[in-house]
Structures are given as C-alpha cells and as structure tokens.
Amino acid sequence: MSGERKAGERTHGDKLFQRECQFVAGAMKLEQLPPMGPIEVAFAGRSNVGKSSLLNALTGRKALARVSQTPGRTQQLNFFDLNGELVLVDMPGHGYAKVGRAKVAEWSELIEGYVRGRANLRRVLLLIDSRHGFKESDEALMDLLDRFALSYQAVMTKADTLKPAALEANRKKFTEAIRKRPAAHPEILVTSSETGAGMSELRDTLADLAAQG
C-alpha cells in the first residue's frame, strides 16, 4: 500500500503509468508470442468483470483496451509496453458462456502454455467483481497457477457498486477464501474504474514488480 499522501500527490506508480504505453503484439497461438523482454504482468478475469475498463483507468487512456458491450471480445493475448519498463498482458476473459467449446479449448491451451513457459511473467492479476467474488472459472485458473507456482493476486473491481461496510466484509471473506492457496498473494486490492479508487495502489504494486526486473 502507498500509505498517507497529500491530495493530488503522485506516487511512484502514478509517475510510471504516465509514461507512454502502446500495443506491441497480439497472440492467438503460442508461436505468435512476442520475444521476452521486460517484466510482464497479466490481467485475467471473467468476461464481464470490467477488465478492459480497469486497464484503461489504470493507464489513464480511454481506448488502450477495447471496452465492449459484448463480454468475451478479447480473443487473444494482447501485449502493451509501458515505456520499456513493464509489459501489461490482457488475457482472454474466462467464463465465456457464448463461446463454443473448440474456441474455449484453444484459449485454454494458449493460456496454459503462456503461464507455464513465460519466464518474465512475474504475476497474474485475477480480477473479481466486488459483489460476487470467485466463480468456478476463477477457481480453475487459480488451480492452474497454483500448479505452476506462478504468483497471482486478486483485484476486486466495481468497488463503487457496494457500500463501504459491505465492500470491506467481502474483501475479508475473499481474503479468507484464498488464504491457503500456495501461489496467491495474501493482499487483495480493491478498485473502481468509475471513481479511480485503488488505482494508485495498484500502480504502485506494478511499479514495484517492474523494479524487480
């Protein structure tokens, strides 16, 4: 966490995310993955969890990631380079109800191959709706990440949809739910793309990971 700071004061994470961020590659197959470079952080979540909105809010850009009225439109791994210091990876949304089994199988193979063999992938951020928490498809992804001992951290989205007491109660409940998972980061971050709440804390977390590279 970033601790107390004056109103309007920028954190080290805020400063990093003010720098140029641009799309560099998209991959629908493992052979299309770009060469490994800076530290990568991947964003995963159900197709209606608000992943594109969070990426846009995080980077302060209106259209870095496509926001669609139809959940599940991200059909590949999309790589965004942040000033050569950090790469943000937008993963296909899981829990895709209207996608055929063959496509789900393709995405599953792509995601498993990516998280298993990407040496510079430092953490997966698992986005969950503040109101609903972990669903079956989230549990399946966490099982996969636990199996490969790849660090992941839960990030609650849409925090503005709950009153503070209910939000804190859910955060505690979700934290307890992952407490015994071996690869899960113990701290759950709470964010809102609508209000900007939690964005500086999330940027600081990612800046700290980038500094490890």
Gist of the model:
The protein is of the alpha/beta class and 213 residues long. The protein has 6 helices and 7 strands. A 7-stranded mixed sheet has the order 1-3-4-2-5-6-7, sandwiched between helices.
Describe the structure in your own words:
This protein is of the alpha/beta class and 213 residues long. The chain is built from 6 helices and 7 strands; from the N terminus they run αββαββαβαβαβα. Strand 6, helix 5 and strand 7 form a beta-alpha-beta unit.
Mean pLDDT reading: 88
Helical amount: 25-40%
Query: Proportion of β residues?
Result: 15-25%
Overall spatial form: globular
Low-confidence segments, ≥5 residues, pLDDT <50? 67-73
Strand order of the largest sheet: 1-3-4-2-5-6-7
Q: Rg from C-alpha positions?
A: 16 Å
Q: How is this fold's topology laid out?
A:
Elements: H1 12-17, E1 21-27, E2 40-45, H2 51-59, E3 77-82, E4 86-90, H3 101-117, E5 121-129, H4 136-147, E6 152-157, H5 164-178, E7 189-190, H6 199-211
Parallel strand pairs: 2-4, 2-5, 5-6, 6-7
Antiparallel strand pairs: 1-3, 3-4
Please tag this protein with its features.
213 residues; alpha/beta; seven-stranded mixed beta sheet
